[in-house]
Design goal:
The protein has helices at residues 18-32, 44-51, 55-67, 120-132, 149-163, 177-189, 204-213, 229-239, 260-272, 296-299, 332-340, 347-359, 361-384, 405-417, 448-471, and strands spanning 71-74, 78-81, 107-108, 172-175, 195-199, 216-220, 222-223, 226-227, 243-246, 276-280, 304-309, 321-324, 398-402, 420-421, 437-441. It has three domains: 1-84, Arc Repressor Mutant, subunit A (Orthogonal Bundle), CATH 1.10.10; 107-119 and 362-471, Aspartate Aminotransferase, domain 1 (Alpha-Beta Complex), CATH 3.90.1150; 132-359, Aspartate Aminotransferase, domain 2, CATH 3.40.640.10. The radius of gyration is 24 Å and the shape is globular. The relative contact order is 0.13. It is α/β, with parallel strands linked by helices. The strands form five sheets. A seven-stranded mixed β-sheet has the order 4-12-11-10-9-5-6, with helices on both faces. It has a two-stranded antiparallel ribbon with strand order 1-2. The chain has a two-stranded parallel ribbon with strand order 3-14. This is PLP-dependent aminotransferase family protein. It comes from Gluconacetobacter diazotrophicus. In the C-terminal section; belongs to the class-I pyridoxal-phosphate-dependent aminotransferase family. GO terms for molecular function: DNA binding; DNA-binding transcription factor activity; pyridoxal phosphate binding; transaminase activity.
């Protein structure tokens, strides 16, 4: 096949996503010799037009093919066929990487981070590969607009594969971590003095962002599935708020998950009141894909801004998150917000992520993180038993201990005196009807032995608090 001729693959009907079948066709043509090493593939738009399919489908197919090691994308030059090499082999395992305790002998159960994975070699390999391919130049330049196209293409493939959300790369914004994504979306949607609705307890980072932007948070009553629809309906009518910030999957701090039917109720209310939804789905990757509720963004794509943080499931140090915008949403205010809140996202973490998505490292790391999260959750269940509320997914990096307000303060104080730090309830509470209790972050300790030690301290603090409650001791 001539290197610059148009490749028009045969894609027979079969089960599975069309972009997977297109990648399969590429793999078959490589094996058959129809596509030689170095063959330049058609641009996304040209191939989409030739096959009568969407550009987004071609983009996902190319990203999938790159993940399999079938092609190499060069910014500004195009995509070229190449055979898989040992350089892009998937790393089979990753070890949990012990790190020193951040504050002397104190054990931190405050910071909601995934268990640390040993990534130094994978990082070095990714940077070496990027340099060899001539892809490191963006890392030393300003990145304009919504981010690097290859990074957003990798993000689109990752969201589809790990979060169950199909989005065109053109609808993604590359952000400097999840906190930047929250501040960016709230600043784009609201003006100082506006009211933003959220769960009665919410992510501390959202509280900080709202306070910094001069916004007022109004908490909505929760039950075991999160937001109560009737309460939301009433408060929207009372406040005439236009924005809802929600963490529907493994809610932070309570680890509750909103079921599919509840999500549909929330969407109906949002449409009735013309409410824009900011869906922070940082923890969706921990849920089992087999019974994970659909993202709200897939139920109401016309009014939902979807936030996915790579930090929570792979590596916090990459400082990478994506905002998926409604397709018809004007971009100007978002783009102005990018410049105002950081000018542009750092490129190196995004480039490393792109490399890891292409060669399978990202999947291997995410699988290792989730396996460790499952082990740590089982450890918490064994030690804390019925004292903990069961999280709304098969894995969770944090758990919730429902307690009375008095018990909450006692447990936090007793644990602190025994060398274990917990987050005060006021850090997440938004309204007076917020469920009292304590969030426990299972990923922060350096290893399982340290976590086990901390959980035993916590169990003792819970027992002592119950004794004090029974005996009327203040």
């Amino acid at each position: 096949m001539d290197r610059d001729s148009m490749w028009r693959p045969d894609i027979p009907p079969a089960p599975g996503p069309l972009y997977h079948r297109l990648a399969d066709a590429m793999e078959r043509d490589i094996a058959a010799g129809t596509l030689d090493n170095g063959t330049r593939l058609p641009p996304h738009r040209d191939l989409a037009h030739a096959l009568g399919i969407s550009i987004g489908t071609v983009t996902k197919a190319y990203a999938e093919a790159e993940r399999r090691g079938l092609l190499q994308a060069h910014v500004g030059r195009g995509s070229f066929i190449r055979a898989p090499t040992p350089d892009v082999a998937i790393l089979p395992t990753f070890d949990i990487a012990p790190t020193p305790a951040p504050r002397g002998t104190m054990i931190d159960l405050r910071c909601n981070t995934p268990p640390a994975v040993a990534l130094s070699q994978a990082l070095e390999r990714a940077v070496t590969q990027l340099a060899a391919a001539g892809h490191l130049e963006p890392a030393v330049q300003y990145i304009q607009g919504s981010g690097l196209r290859p990074v957003r293409e990798a993000g689109s493939a990752w969201l589809a594969r790990r979060y169950g959300l199909e989005r065109d790369p053109g609808d993604l914004i590359q952000c400097n971590g999840g906190q930047h994504a929250i501040a960016l979306t709230l600043s784009a949607l609201c003006r100082p003095g506006d009211t933003v609705l959220c769960e009665s307890s919410t992510f501390y980072g959202a509280k900080i962002a709202a306070e910094h932007l001069g916004l007022s948070l109004r908490g909505v009553t929760m039950d075991h599935e999160g937001l109560v629809p009737a309460a939301l309906d009433r408060i929207v009518a009372e406040t005439r708020a236009r924005v809802l910030f929600t963490v529907p999957t493994l809610h932070n701090p309570t680890a509750r998950t909103m079921g599919a039917a509840r999500r549909e109720e929330i969407v109906r209310i949002a449409r009735r009141h013309d409410l824009t939804i900011v869906e922070d789905d940082a923890y969706s990757a921990y849920a089992d894909p087999g019974d994970r509720p659909p993202p709200i963004a897939s139920l109401a794509p016309e009014r939902t801004l979807y936030l996915a943080s790579i930090s929570k499931g792979i590596c916090p140090g990459l400082r990478l998150a994506f905002v998926a915008l409604p397709p018809a949403m004007p971009r100007e205010r978002i783009l102005r917000g990018i410049r105002a809140l950081g000018y542009c996202p750092p490129a190196l973490g995004g480039l490393v992520f792109t490399r890891w998505v292409a060669d399978g490292t990202a999947d291997a790391v995410a699988d290792a993180v989730q396996a460790e999260a499952a082990t740590r959750l089982d450890l918490a269940r064994r030690i804390l038993g019925d004292a903990m509320e069961q999280p709304g997914a098969v894995r969770s990096p944090h758990i919730w201990l429902p307690l009375s307000p008095v018990q909450t303060q006692r447990v936090i104080g007793r644990a602190l005196r025994a060398g274990v730090e917990l987050t005060p309830q006021e850090a997440s509470s938004v309204s007076r009807d917020a469920d009292p209790g304590v969030r426990v972050c299972l990923g922060a300790p350096a290893d399982r032995a340290t976590l086990e030690q901390a959980l035993h301290v916590l169990r003792t603090a819970l027992h002592d608090s119950e004794v004090s409650q029974t005996e009327g001791i203040v």
